[in-house]
């Protein structure tokens, strides 16, 4: 049996996104939730300053687990079946002007995680392709500003900016991925990032086809 600590590394988490996809392009929710739990564990290992972020992710994962374990759970097997069920039965708040009726719908909850996955993809790609002396906090906030920032209030953007400033240097960060030297971590990112990219692209297409990308 493997040592749980040495098994815990960013490669294992990124590769776990591969399990989310079936051959016919379904995104399996149980695996999606498990992969996100791995990311939360990694985020927690970076320090208490990120706990306001991980708490938000945990609460969203709890919503999804609640739906999955509910009597309607079979409709939450995949993102595709969830969208078909919630949209088909009008269980999603589409209109920003109306009073929210389904603030915990699966579609809007996954959308928040989905947008964050794009941030992660851009940030890790930035780390992978940047020079040795690149600033982690700049890479992180550049990725944030082109993805999540547009959806966050001023106060959250300020809190996030402060948290980014505490990030370690690129080398230390790459080593914290627990896959060996910083060079090995860069190599790992090249191999493993396509797994989250695939999940992101398929989810994005699904949400776009159903006009769900702006759910309030
Ligand atoms: C490595 C540093 C990690 C920095 C993470 C950057 C992302 C910043 C996200 C800030 C979220 C702030 C908390 C609250 C957010 C919510 O308001 C907001 C909207 O939700 P609502 O519509 O229900 O109100 N929630 C969200 O947008 C979801 C945010 C989810 C953020 C997930 C961050 C995942 C981090 C995984 C990190 C793994 C580290 C890997 C890097 C090597």
From TrEMBL:
Main location: membrane
SUPFAM superfamilies per the UniProt record, alphabetical: Glycolipid transfer protein, GLTP
Domain Glycolipid transfer protein, residue spans: 28-178
Coiled coil: none
Pfam families attached to this UniProt entry: GLTP
Topology of this chain in the membrane: Peripheral membrane protein
Keywords for the protein's UniProt record, in alphabetical order: Cell membrane, Cytoplasm, Endosome, Golgi apparatus, Lipid transport, Lipid-binding, Membrane, Nucleus, Transport
InterPro entries from the UniProt entry: GLTP_sf, Glycolipid_transfer_prot_dom
Reactions catalysed, as given in the entry: N-(9Z-octadecenoyl)-sphing-4-enine-1-phosphate(in) = N-(9Z-octadecenoyl)-sphing-4-enine-1-phosphate(out); N-(hexadecanoyl)-sphing-4-enine-1-phosphate(in) = N-(hexadecanoyl)-sphing-4-enine-1-phosphate(out)
Compartments reported by the entry: Cell membrane; Cytoplasm, Cytosol; Endosome membrane; Golgi apparatus, trans-Golgi network membrane
Membership in a protein family: Belongs to the GLTP family.
This protein's name: Ceramide-1-phosphate transfer protein
């Amino acid at each position: 049996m493997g040592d749980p600590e040495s098994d815990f590394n960013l490669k294992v988490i990124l590769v776990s996104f591969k399990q989310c996809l079936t051959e016919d392009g379904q995104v399996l929710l149980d695996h999606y939730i498990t992969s996100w739990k791995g990311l939360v564990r990694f985020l927690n290992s970076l320090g208490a300053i990120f706990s306001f972020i991980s708490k938000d992710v945990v609460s969203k994962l709890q919503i999804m687990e609640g739906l999955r374990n509910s009597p309607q759970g079979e409709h939450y097997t995949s993102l595709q079946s969830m969208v078909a069920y919630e949209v088909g039965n009008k269980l999603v708040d589409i209109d920003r002007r109306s009073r929210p009726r389904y603030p915990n719908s699966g579609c809007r909850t996954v959308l928040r995680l989905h947008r964050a996955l794009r941030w992660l993809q851009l940030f890790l790609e930035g780390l992978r392709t940047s020079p040795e002396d690149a600033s982690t906090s700049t890479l992180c906030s550049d990725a944030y500003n082109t993805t999540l920032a547009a959806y966050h209030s001023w106060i959250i953007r300020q809190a996030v900016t402060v948290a980014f400033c505490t990030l370690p240097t690129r080398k230390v960060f790459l080593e914290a991925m627990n896959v060996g030297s910083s060079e090995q971590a860069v190599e790992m990112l090249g191999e493993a990032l396509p797994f989250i990219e695939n999940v992101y692209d398929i989810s994005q297409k699904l949400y776009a086809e159903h006009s769900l990308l702006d759910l309030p």
